[in-house]
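Deliverable D4.2, example record:
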Amino acid sequence: VISLDEKGIISTINKAAESMLHIREEEIVGKALATVIPEEYLQFANSISQKTAQGNTSLNLPVSISIAGTPKHFSLHYASLKDEAGMDMGSIIVFDDVTELEKAQRMAAWREVARRIAHEVKNPLTPIKLSAQRLKRRYAEQINDQVFSTCTDTIVEHLVNQFSAFARFPDINFANNRIEDLIMETVALYQEGLEEVDIQTHIASGIPVMKLDSQHMKQAFINLMDNAVYAVNKKGQIIIDLSYDPILKIVRIEFSDTGVGISDKEKTKLFEPYFSTKKTGMGLGLAIVNSIISNHNGTIQVQDNHPKGAKFIIELPIFG
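Output generated by the structure prediction step:
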């Protein structure tokens, strides 16, 4: 909540607004709103002023901004305050962070799309395979067997399996696991084959045993490592940090790379299905990662890594 006086000077800001907007009370109280808003949002602020000048005493608007390199979506509620005589007393702006809600709605919509596409592709898959097998038997001596094997064993089935993995992820099997073991097992897959990539792991002490699906979580880590390796073009640095906050009871995993980085525009769509910054691929990798983390009641976000590259941050709660 931010309150303004009748001249548009910020008079108060609560702790929630400080946290959501990454600003401090002492930095903005007593200043005009227009002087503390980033330049790219001045036009938006001016449009609010124009609407209120036209007699609108309250407004409800969606707002999308980038805070500390992370895209955020807010529902903004603006209300002007009048005294009994109708004189202007100031105004109140209330921000509701709906980032996770919008993400969940988009993911639900995409899951439905994926489910329908998988269904439509899967329906003709069986007769296609049977026809291919009949052709294989009939022309086995005339045509290279590899042609049929490629058609029947990989391409179509892989496509459908990718759709299905996102549309309806397999059941989760929670069990006690040490997440640091899963991280080290993942890193071991990459260390030998990437001589010019410096892979570092920083694992804090006191990480508790967690209820996890080890296979799903490992798949999420592998997808993130694949992205990092691609980003550094097989030459750079990848750092994995694992820590635990005993007060919040949250395990935090960070995958940082020194690659090309991710633009603010790309960040807004990064976890959506079929969006990819790669030249090849289906764009389902990070969508599946997001599903896995969500199924563990966790969150994942992407930020800029300094001085260059990107940083993926996973936070998982500890239960019990």
